[in-house]
Amino acid sequence: MNLQGIVAVSGKPGLWKALAQNKNGYVLESLDAQKTKLVANLSTAKLAALSEITIFGVDDDIKLTDVFEQMKNATSIPDAKADGKKLREFFFEVAPDHDEEKVYASDMKKIISWYQLLKDLPLFNEPDPTVAPAEAEEPTAVETPVAVEETAEKAPAEAPKPKTKKTTKKAE
Fold it and tell me: Which region ranges are annotated with the description Disordered (predicted)?
């Protein structure tokens, strides 16, 4: 999923898309139906990129993008206004090793409401541009085997010689 440029702003509900940056801060647009514009001042507002957010885990922190991937595969997602017990049960499905003491019900509600905003957007189903696809790592062309005699007959390629600037000295 491509969450590049999607941020959460402290003190503001919902999610925002970074459109541009000026000398005072960032120009943001809300992801809800109203498409509200906002200039977030860097000195007063705290921005958190969704692609960088993690959730407290028992052993290691869990990336929010991994939780969203698990939520895609979940059978039913509770309402963000559901009680804490239902949210906790759901979170044990999508993030089984989250830390119960550090992940509060308010955090789970926020993550579920973010998921509800993002799931219908086309960027949610796009591949992440920062992660190289697995197919790119494997060679796609079929290499033909080269006989041993052919490689022995070929001379090793010489390294290109560096170009030097010719200078002429005048005879005095």
Answer: 127-172
DSSP 105-172: HHHHHHHHHHHHHHTTSGGGSSPPTTSPPHHHHS--SPPPP--HHHHHHSPPPPPPPPP-----PPP-
pLDDT in tens, 42-96: 888 899 999 899 999 998 999 999 999 999 888 888 988 888 899 999 999 999 9
Residue ranges and CATH numbers for the domains of the chain are: 6-124 (1.10.10.1650)
Contact 150, 65 (CB under 8 A): no
Phi, psi (5° rounding) for residue 57?
-120, 165
Which residue in 74, 104, 66 sits closest to 88, CA to CA?
A: 104
